[in-house]
Amino acid sequence: MKKPSIVQLNNKYIKNENQKKRFEEEESQKRNRFMGWILVVMMFLFILPTYNLVKSYVSLQEQNKQVTTLKKEYKALDKSTEAEKKLAKQLKNTDYVVKYARAKYYLTQEGEVVYPIPGLLPK
């Protein structure tokens, strides 16, 4: 193999130029490292609020589901309360109480025979 015919001079100028080049490379690496750290900090500054925002959104969706289920339960309870109020109002009528007792508890007077028919219970 043939040796290169170029010989590098090792004088003061070359040494100064090499030293300048190394210094510039080190400065460039320091700048790049600094910019990298700034980038990492910026990522954290954007990631943490985004995480909190997503967490809040999920919590809000769960609360909305709870609200809808509670509204449904409220409507069902409201209907049953209305039915109970209606029954309580009807139970103030003595004729209705007699009918209700005969139908629900099969109460009879002497000599009567009761034939229960499903679905005829007063409501």
From TrEMBL:
Pfam families in alphabetical order: DivIC
Q: Name one GO biological process term.
A: cell division
**The entry's keywords:** Membrane, Transmembrane, Transmembrane helix
The family database entries (InterPro entries) matched by this protein are listed as: DivIC (IPR039076), FtsL/DivIC (IPR007060)
Carries keyword Electron transport? Answer: no
Q: Which residues cross the membrane?
A: 34-54
This protein's name: Septum formation initiation protein
User: Which organism was this protein described from?
Assistant: Streptococcus bovimastitidis
